[in-house]
Structure formats: structure tokens, C-alpha cells
Design a protein that fits this description.
homodimer; 354 residues; mainly beta; Sulfite Oxidase, Chain A, domain 2; Immunoglobulin-like; 2 domains; 5-stranded mixed sheet; 4 helices
């Protein structure tokens, strides 16, 4: 007989545009997320590609407006770095006071090794004028919004220091292959440490501004709005919050007594993860998990494991909190904000040992 | 360029054993759920098949113990009926007081046209003794449990009246093809109106008992236990509760003003769906949805639609409740029970019209 094939799948959140999350609990979380399990997050339908899609322009507050062709970029000095990409809406479904938007669970996060040219090198060729203040990246994807009239490209800006950081790349490869079409082929901006909205896919143009960029994906979306009724305290979504996910066991699962290998990932946009602690009694006491790092890859998630010998039947609340080198630690409750970004409360599951 | 293919997938809940739910919000809910979207619910690993798997035995309180071969069954008088199969744990994740077990959302339900021989005909060949009281169905799948020692086959019983109902089938085809392996090939019991646990896959044996069957999937699992601390009020899971699901729009989605086609399904195990009502204002007032029935298929879900013309921006709580010909109606809150079976509270989503 043909033995049935069992495999996990991306978890569909919307089809138009396509938004699917990674089945984060159901495959080996190594350095590289397999292409078929890499989360997909789109604002619009996929763009059509043509000859001219194989180039990116630089203009605005630069001495020389330039066009870099795909083949030009392939021959320039490059870098290859492992980067965790996390949608800022990851875990949005977990906010107790529910918010509108795609109800991502824990899988709007994936990791890959990206190869490309430092953006800084391209900006240096063009020559920034002293008036340069922000750099705007437009993708080839565009469309309409429900909250305002008109057609918009997907466009985001970075402050100069992040644009000039040597690890901000115009990437052309993911895991040793051309970037898959759904993930930005042929060219994608990769911004380590920032939430995924900054890593613009199908990169079309780079425009240096002498002012703040005010496109809707900069000032309407991807803004923390902590007030339910007022505009007070708004701030932009930028760096990834320190965070972790328990991969195994699953929430609400039934387990046998014996040895249970609890495992998961942890990541941050500020520095690096220093330690991961678990509580097996709902927060009364904490123990350290073993942390496994990818050498020389500061932007990669870390894997953590803990060997739990459990002989006592009963219900257990298991918590996990990560801490980073900036002293950030996952909070008991995430900061609520109207559009549900940056959820990073202490991870928590309940299991029953029978 | 090759246009990217966009498709929904089964939603993985566990891989060992395989449990995956239907992406119910993301394909056309017609009479037949495509095989790739049919929910998968297993208690154990898949059974190995051999020559002897192509037969089912009948014994116990019968005049003649018999073995029916697959090929015998194919040549006997048959019936073909559309049946909604719903796992009794469907929507378990919705219980506010959380319970252990697989956290099914709304997709542990699918529908197909099953062809097979009425079980009654087979029991008549064997000849029930007057002592016959229950009929036990064992599948070829077996394994261990977390809550008790030993190896168990998956086995379930039916009371005599349901076993003798002319629409309870020993099925060999789904949607005009041999039953897919994952769904019970070569032979599966199909019990219309009962939750899916009764429709035993990989049917191996039929045993007529003179007593109540007390296998663990009969008296430990698939029992409503309404008390948090006591055994009071326990009752077996049998008939499907009247229920509905809103397929579109999605919960917490952002919509434009204009005309929105709200749609979904409704189903019951007691009689048939008589009407489906929607509330567009959180339950203050109700309107009737249009109901579309599959002719002469009393065990099939109905499709319902409602054309909502919405010009006023704002947040809306949309509720849906179905009623059946036995007078059952979806309750405001589902009856809580320790293992989380039979959830059928009024369906409810929140949307924001911008």
C-alpha cells in the first residue's frame, strides 16, 4: 500500500490579497524556514513583472539619479545574513481587547539567509545631498484601501541611519536561490531588526527625501495607537520587540507523564537574546532554558529547549519569557494598541498531564 | 511571467496522529467538499492495509456470523446520500472557559456524497438475535491513550434503532470514487445526523452486543461532562446540534461601504434547517437570510446568503442563528462541558466598515 503522506501547510488568513502564516508548530525550526512554510504577507495583489522590473532607481536628494539593474547588483560586493522576518501583526489574535485586521496567531514569522548589496553602497554611488533626511522604498505592488479613496503603491521609509546601516540590504537571493516571486523577486529590501513591513518586496524605487515621508503605510498603518478614543501617544512601528514562541507542546494538549522536551524560539530587534526562562507553575518560579545560537548571525532567532521530567499528573501552566542584551524582557501583558502591532506578552500554554 | 498560484490549505492541528481542519472560509461551500479540503480527524496513526482489510465481519448476537468482502458489497443494492460530517469537537476553541483537547476552530466539518450498502441489509443477512442491544463498530486503527494503559482499537457503538436506520451505510465510495485512504478506505461506516465520531473509518468488524458497549471512545471520550468537579449530568455525544457558520466576511475584517454578500452554512442532526436569521446590530433586531437547499438531501448542510447594503461607516457585530424543524435554535452560549463537545452558540463576528 502507498503510505499516506502527512504534511503541515501554510495557514490561510486571506486569499485576496494573499496572507498565510507559517505552521510554526509543525516543522523543524532551523536557521532556514522552508519556502513552502515561509509566511506570506501582502497588502495588495501580486504585481505583474516585466523587463523593467529588473531594475531599481535611486533619486530625490542625491547628486546623481541612478538606475541599478539586477545584473549590476549581482556583480557588486555582497553580504549574506540570516534574518528573522516578523510581521508586526504577529500574534494580533492574542490581544484580549480584540482589534480589527488579520487575526495572525504565532506564525507571521520566518527566517532565511538573504544575500544582497548593502543599500549604503548604492546610496554612496548616488551621493546623498546634505538635505537628505529619509529614504523611501516603493514596491511594485499597489492598489486601493478601505479607509481612503485612491490607488497607492506599497511604500515605506527608513531614517538615514538605518538606511546607511551596513546590514540593510537590497537583496536578490534567499537561501542560495533567487528570491521566490511571492517573497519579492527580483529585488527586496531587507531591514534586519525592524518588523517585516520595512522589508519592501518587489523593490522598484529608492527616493531620498528632505522631509518626513507621509504615505499611508507610514503614517496611517504601522503606527502604535495606544488610546481607544484619542490620538495621544502615537508612535511608529520600527524595531522588533523581544519575544518568544513555545513550539512544543501545543496549548491545551494532553500529555503522558515522563520526559517532555519543551522547545521554541526567541528573538529581538534590540541587541541579542541573552536568556530564556520557563515557568512550569504559572509564574511562581522560573528555570533557565538551554539556548542554541546560530554562530555569527546576530539577526537570527535562537532555538531554546528544556527537558521537563514530569511524574505528577495534573494541569500545568507553562510560561516562557525571553530577555535581550538591551535589558528588554517580555511583559506580562502586551501594550494594547488600536491596530494590534508588536504583541510580545510572555508566552503561555496550558497542558494536562494524564 | 508565471502568475503565482494562490490556494488555501488544510489547517494543521496535529501531525501524529494527523488532525487537520477544512479552510472553511476560503473555498466555495457546495454540496461536495473537495478532497484536499476535507477535514481529517484521527485518534491514532493510519492503519496498514492488507488483503484482509477488504472485508468486514459481523458477529456477536447474530444467528450467522458472516464476512462481507469489499467486492460482495459493491454488487449489493446501494444508496447514495449527501452527508455533512462534523467532528463533535468542532469550534472547541470557542469555549470561553477553555478545555483541553485539539483546539478546533470552525473547520472540523465537511460534506460529501457517500455511496454504500445499508447496514440494515447486512444485519438482516446475519439475523439479529432477540438479545441484540447495541452494535459495535471497530476500525482498523488502534493505539495507546494518555489517560490509561494498554492498546485500544478505535471502536464505537450505535443503539439498535440507529444501526437499523435505512440511511446508516457501510460506504465504499465518496463523491463517485473509492473512499480516499485518509477518510476510511476501503469501507467506512456513515451515520447521518450523528457527530463524526460515529462514522468509523477503515471498518473492520461489526459486533452485536447484548449489553452496553464500554470502550474508552464510548464511555470516556465523547461524553458531555457538564460539571467542573463532579460526574453529575453526564450524557453521551450523539446527534449533531443545530449550528451555523458565517463563511464571509471574516471576523475582525475591514470592509468598504456598499453591498456585502454575507454567506455561510447551517446544519442540524435533528430534522432539517427551517430558517437562518442574521442580526447586523449585535442582536437588537433580526432579519431572515435566504436559504438554499440541496434537493432531496436531508442530511446536507444548507447554504444561506444575505445581501447587506451598508452605507454607514462604523463597527458592526453580526450574529447568525439557525433553527431546525425540531424547534431547536442556536443558544446565546454553548453548554460548557469538560471535553468541549457540541459547541453551537450563535455565530458571531465583528467587522469595521470604513
Amino acid at each position: 500500500m502507498r503510505w499516506p503522506h502527512i504534511e503541515p501547510h501554510l495557514i490561510t488568513r486571506s486569499l485576496v490579497p494573499e496572507n498565510q502564516e507559517s505552521p510554526i508548530h509543525f516543522f523543524s525550526l532551523a536557521a532556514v524556514t522552508p519556502e513552502g512554510f515561509f509566511y506570506i504577507r501582502n497588502h495588495f495583489s501580486y504585481p505583474m513583472l516585466s523587463e523593467e522590473s529588473f531594475a531599481v532607481t535611486i533619486d530625490g536628494e542625491v547628486r546623481n539619479s541612478l538606475t541599478f539593474h539586477y545584473r549590476d547588483l549581482l556583480s557588486m560586493p555582497s553580504k549574506e545574513i540570516a534574518v528573522t522576518l516578523e510581521c508586526s501583526g504577529n500574534k494580533r489574535a492574542r490581544f484580549k481587547l480584540k482589534v480589527y485586521g488579520i487575526q495572525w496567531e504565532e506564525g507571521a514569522i520566518s527566517q532565511g539567509v538573504w544575500k544582497g548589496v548593502p543599500l549604503r553602497d548604492l546610496l554612496n554611488y548616488a551621493g546623498l545631498k546634505p538635505t537628505a533626511r529619509e529614504v523611501v522604498f516603493a514596491g511594485r505592488d499597489c492598489g486601493t484601501r478601505t479607509d481612503m479613496a485612491g490607488t497607492y503603491p506599497y511604500a515605506r521609509s527608513l531614517p538615514l541611519d538605518k538606511a546607511l546601516h551596513p546590514d540593510t540590504l537590497v537583496a536578490y537571493e534567499l537561501n542560495g536561490q533567487p528570491i521566490p516571486y511571492k517573497h519579492g523577486y527580483p529585488l527586496r529590501l531587507i531591514v534586519p531588526q525592524w518588523y517585516g513591513m520595512a522589508s519592501v518586496k518587489w523593490l522598484r524605487s529608492i527616493t531620498v527625501l528632505d522631509a518626513r515621508f507621509t504615505g499611508p503605510f507610514q503614517v496611517v498603518d504601522y503606527v502604535y495607537e495606544p488610546g481607544t478614543d484619542s490620538d495621544d501617544g502615537k508612535s511608529p512601528v520600527t524595531l522588533v520587540h523581544v519575544n518568544s514562541t513555545i513550539q512544543f507542546p501545543m496549548d491545551r494538549s494532553l500529555l503522558d507523564t515522563g520526559t517532555i522536551q519543551i522547545c521554541g524560539i526567541a528573538w529581538t530587534g534590540t541587541g541579542f537574546i541573552t536568556d530564556v526562562e520557563l515557568s512550569l507553575n504559572g509564574g511562581e518560579s522560573w528555570v533557565s532554558a538551554d539556548v542554541h545560537r546560530l554562530p555569527n548571525q546576530p539577526y537570527a532567532w535562537i532555538l531554546w529547549t528544556y527537558r521537563w521530567d514530569v511524574s505528577q499528573q495534573g494541569e500545568y501552566a507553562i510560561l516562557c519569557r525571553a530577555r535581550d542584551s538591551y535589558g528588554n524582557i517580555q511583559p506580562a501583558a502586551a501594550s494594547w494598541n488600536k491596530k494590534g502591532y508588536g504583541y510580545n506578552a510572555i508566552s503561555s500554554i496550558n497542558v494536562k498531564v494524564e
